[in-house]
Amino acid sequence: MFLLGDEAREEAKRSIKGLAAHAKSADEHHHEALYLVLNTKIHLVKENDQTPRIIPLTHKLHDIDERRMCLITNDPVNFYKDELQKKDLPTEDLFRQIISFTKAKLFGHSKKALIRLFKENDLILADARIHKKLPDVLGPQFYARNKKVPFVVQMAKPEPGLRTHGKREQRVDPKYVRSQVKAITGNTYYIPPAGGFCIHIVVGFTDWKTLEILRNINDVILYLVDEKYKPVGGLLGRVSNLHSVLLRTSDSIAMPVLKKKADEAEEDDSGSEFDFE
Question: Which Pfam families match (predicted)?
Fold first, then answer.
């Protein structure tokens, strides 16, 4: 069952085919990302915590080894590097680079170092213990319009009641780290804008089968409306809180999936924090 309804499903099919034809006209071997554009009637969050919410998809976007990744860890970095890069472990060659929070702070004082970090990595991942400190370190290049916001990674599965007796906790579980990174690279994500009404979420690529993209669209809508995904998901509450739903590529017009009601005001999606560049 398509959660947006039969009419929306047929509209989505037409839009997917149209966008694929547009991409093919520019490049025979097209593989352009398709963005689901959601205009909502309600604010999803009161404050923007700059934490990407991972949305599980039936059809995965990337293999884990396709992405160049930098991991920013708590100090001391050598402990984490040694544990994660041991031979034959699941994380042996997973990260392009592993740097400490202290080194990241040094990068923050060098525009060239930050630009290099930005350009040389597809994804930035951060130890959960220092994730919230990174906006002041990395600055607007990574955070403005959600260009390359760091994803949260737990270095080991949390153990309720674990006592460290005032010492810095140092635990690393390479298998657990890899499972999180696999979820991040394979699935899609969104960062709900505080006070905003528009979000963009990647749901597939122009060279995919139409049914694969439809299934992923359904996965995204389910994540946003189903209470079982709260508190990070389920923020939309119900489908009726959607004003309109569209599809687009980075250089196309937006094509309809769920059309606006004739008696409703036009929604301006220019306030989205997403950047296609």
Answer: Ribosomal_L1 (PF00687)
Provide the 8-state DSSP code for 42: S
Q: What is the pLDDT of residues 153-168, one digit of tens each?
A: 999 998 776 655 445 5
Contact criterion met (CB below 8 Å) for 252 and 22: yes
Count how many Cα atoms sit within 13 Å of the Cα of residue 17 in the half-sphere of its side chain.
7
From residue 142, alpha-carbon distances to 74, 133, 139, 186 in Å are: 19, 13, 6, 21
In single-letter form, the type of residue at position 261 comes to K
Residue-wise pLDDT for 188-234, tens only, equals 999 988 888 999 999 999 999 999 999 999 999 999 999 999 988 99
Residue 32: closest CA among 24, 40, 41, 42: 24
The length of the chain in residues reads: 277
Instruction: Please tell me the pTM assigned to this model.
Output: 0.88
Q: What is the dihedral of CA 195, 49, 53, 186, to 10 degrees?
A: 120
Q: How far apart are CA 58 and CA 212, in angstroms?
A: 8
Walk me through the domains of the chain, giving residue ranges and CATH numbers: 1-61+188-261 (3.30.190.20), 62-159+170-186 (3.40.50.790)
Q: What is the rounded radius of gyration, in angstroms, for the C-alpha atoms of the chain? A: 20
pLDDT in tens, 41-89: 999 888 888 899 999 999 999 999 999 999 999 999 999 999 999 999 9
204: left (phi over 0), alpha (psi -120 to 50) or beta: left
Helices and strands, counts by H and E, the chain: 8, 10
**Strand partners for 71:** 98, 125
CA nearest to 95, candidates 85, 86, 105: 85
Tokens coding 131: 């994730």
DSSP assignment letter at 233: S
Phi, psi for residue 170 in degrees, rounded to 5? -130, 95
